[in-house]
TrEMBL record:
<comment type="pathway">
    <text>Cofactor biosynthesis; NAD(+) biosynthesis; deamido-NAD(+) from nicotinate D-ribonucleotide: step 1/1.</text>
</comment>
<keyword id="KW-0520">NAD</keyword>
<comment type="function">
    <text>Catalyzes the reversible adenylation of nicotinate mononucleotide (NaMN) to nicotinic acid adenine dinucleotide (NaAD).</text>
</comment>
<feature type="domain" description="Cytidyltransferase-like">
    <location>
        <begin position="6"/>
        <end position="177"/>
    </location>
</feature>
<comment type="similarity">
    <text>Belongs to the NadD family.</text>
</comment>
<protein>
    <recommendedName>
        <fullName>Probable nicotinate-nucleotide adenylyltransferase</fullName>
        <ecNumber>2.7.7.18</ecNumber>
    </recommendedName>
</protein>
<dbReference type="InterPro" id="IPR014729">
    <property type="entry name" value="Rossmann-like_a/b/a_fold"/>
</dbReference>
<dbReference type="GO" id="GO:0004515">
    <property type="term" value="F:nicotinate-nucleotide adenylyltransferase activity"/>
</dbReference>
<keyword id="KW-0662">Pyridine nucleotide biosynthesis</keyword>
<dbReference type="InterPro" id="IPR004821">
    <property type="entry name" value="Cyt_trans-like"/>
</dbReference>
<keyword id="KW-0547">Nucleotide-binding</keyword>
<keyword id="KW-0548">Nucleotidyltransferase</keyword>
<dbReference type="Pfam" id="PF01467">
    <property type="entry name" value="CTP_transf_like"/>
</dbReference>
<dbReference type="InterPro" id="IPR005248">
    <property type="entry name" value="NadD/NMNAT"/>
</dbReference>
<keyword id="KW-0067">ATP-binding</keyword>
<keyword id="KW-0808">Transferase</keyword>
């Protein structure tokens, strides 16, 4: 039985921190595979800056040399009303029926789930397992204990908390801003992705 991590993000663009984070989690949690899950342009809660196809192409370039990494465009193919983490994890648990699925997320998202801000928040926690990355200023144990949704659906193995060494913060938005303002973020993302952005004129401010 394999252990598989689902790592969802906009990846707009994928950065070296995304890759480093996934690699660190894969190593520490002894995951057999990390699946990068780019979200769709159709999502109502996120505003994408780049077409799905460009983000997908850059992601493929970024992970091509790591046999522990793969990508899945499941959410990109869904209708807007059917996109939710709860439904996505149901899909992956059915696809990998004999394996253990973990949803990888930051502690800030843990708080949002605990407040019931995600669709089917209670069932999401009750039926799934999570790897939660530390975020500055967030006490993850307190977040769990102070939320009825989180604490009452935690069987002791629901949350794998990673509290040290994942504090690097180089965001995709920072890289987009650098490109748009004529900056040079070359070494903040994979070289192949940097060249792809240059070749396709992505993130440039329109005159």
């Amino acid at each position: 039985m394999a252990k598989i991590g689902i790592y969802g993000s906009s990846f707009d663009p994928v950065t070296n921190v995304h890759l480093w984070t996934a690699s660190t989690i894969q190593h520490r949690c002894r995951l057999d595979k990390v699946i990068f899950l780019p979200c769709s342009n159709k999502r109502k809660d996120k505003q994408m800056q780049t077409a799905d196809q460009h983000r997908w192409n850059m992601l493929q370039l970024a992970i091509q040399d790591n046999d522990k990494f793969t990508a899945d465009n499941y959410e990109m193919k869904q209708n807007a009303w059917n996109i939710s983490t709860y439904e996505t994890l149901k899909y992956f648990k059915k696809k990998f029926i004999n394996d253990t699925i973990y949803f990888i997320m930051g502690a800030d998202l843990l708080i949002d789930i605990g407040k019931g801000k995600w669709g089917n928040s209670e069932l999401l926690v009750k039926e799934n397992k999570f790897i939660v990355m530390a975020r500055d200023g967030i006490d993850m144990l307190k977040a769990i204990s102070s939320s009825p949704i989180l604490r009452n659906n935690d069987d002791g193995e629901t949350f794998h908390l990673i509290d040290k060494g994942l504090a690097m913060e180089i965001s995709s938005s920072y890289i987009r801003e650098e490109f748009s303002l004529g900056g040079e973020p070359r070494y903040l993302l994979p070289e192949a992705c940097y060249q792809y952005i240059k070749d396709h004129g992505l993130y440039q401010t329109e005159e």
